[in-house]
Amino acid sequence: MKILGIGVDIVQNKRIKKLAKNKLFLKRTFSKKEIEFSKKNFDKICYYSKRFAAKEALVKSLGTGFRFNLNFKDIEILNDKFGKPYYYISSKIDRMITKRFKIKKFDLLLSIADEKDYSVAFTILQKK
Questions:
Q1: Which runs of E-coded beta strand occur in the chain?
Q2: Which of 27, 31, 53, 68 could cross-link to 9 by cystine, CB 3.0-4.6 Å?
Q3: Tens digits of residue pLDDT in 74-117
């Protein structure tokens, strides 16, 4: 497997705490599933901070940033039955990656973590 891109992002949790007071920020940044799942989470700010960082890390791994009509809601972070986070690969993300890197199959690997003041995410985009 060949690594096509890596991305990392760190977020100060108090920044997201301020932004999350605005419901429009949540609606513009997170999917309905992400917002729904946050309700089951004890620490909503860290939950949102980690996902925000993960979305930033993904666009860094692509090398594009938020361009080409890509926005935060196009990137969705879910959890498997064991709680491991993963990127839900929408058709838009799939088309963008396959076109940009001229590949048919790929993996997106994600690791997220938080500490009292910060949340961090690391992404690897690799060709299968």
A1: 2-12, 76-79, 85-88, 106-114, 118-127
A2: 53
A3: 999 999 999 999 999 999 999 999 999 999 999 999 999 999 99
∠50-55-59 over CA atoms, to 5°? 145
Domain that holds residue 38: 2-127
Mean pLDDT within 59-74: 89
Q: CA-CA distance, 117 to 29, in Å (whole number)?
A: 21
**Residues sharing a CB contact under 8 Å with residue 38, sequence separation 6 or more, in sequence order:** 30, 44, 47, 48
Total tally of structural domains belonging to the chain = 1
Tell me the pTM.
0.93
**Rg of the chain, C-alpha, whole Å:** 14
3-class SS of residue 63: coil
CA 21 to chain CA centroid, Å, is: 20
